[in-house]
Amino acid sequence: MTSDPIATAFSRKAAVYDAFGVGHEQLARMREAVYAELAAVVPAGGHLLELNAGTGLDAAEMVARGYRVHATDLAEGMVAEIERKIGAGMGSGRLTAQQCSFNTLDQVGGPFDALYSNSGGLNCTADLAAVFGQFPRLLRRGGTVTLVIMPPFCPWEHALLLKNWRVATRRWRPGGVLAHVEGAHFMTYYFTPRHVLAALGPAFRLVSLRSLALLTPTADNDQFARRRPRLYRTLVALETPLLGRWPFNQWGDFFMLTARLNE
Predict the structure, then answer these.
(1) What kind and span of H or E run contains 51?
(2) Structure pTM?
């Protein structure tokens, strides 16, 4: 197994990753928004490349919706879970997996109709431009990228300022934050949509930008919707009309940005 601490952390997490999402209403709602976004920009039957694919939950869902997906992840344990799903018959021959860092995408073929990365995997690099510079080669002309990234401003976390100031202010710290996952330590970084667009450069143009989890809990909170369902539904109703509006579309646990490669 690689000595990379990120790969080590998420390989250790692979065995429990899927179970965390069972009955997790907030996480399911966020994932559904990503699936809807991909379906809006890529017709069914398209070939998708996923970065930071984890155990292949999103890839398997997109395959079920009529797409072909090549799922990549740095963590050996995560890729093993995807391959286990493929071996069990999931994907019907339209799901493939490869252990690969987003820093070495020259190892990946192509071209693809679209590329996506969910759940903040790209927050594990300080140099977005180095990653994004590989994208044009991987995409067909007019292809899209859909990136789900954690921004510096998260209303849910900032509301905890008096209760837990370390959590409330962690995204504000310059130079990144040391994350602790399954006994491994690595740096994480927070980016605004402006940072992302600058890193994509002039080869791409913005298609859409929206918040994921603006007023509702962060993705790591699997209990709030269960324990306080009425309040949760109220917060969903309050945030829904704001998710795509400036400046709210730049805030939240994550934002989802789609850009198109110039033809």
Answers:
(1) strand 47-51
(2) 0.94
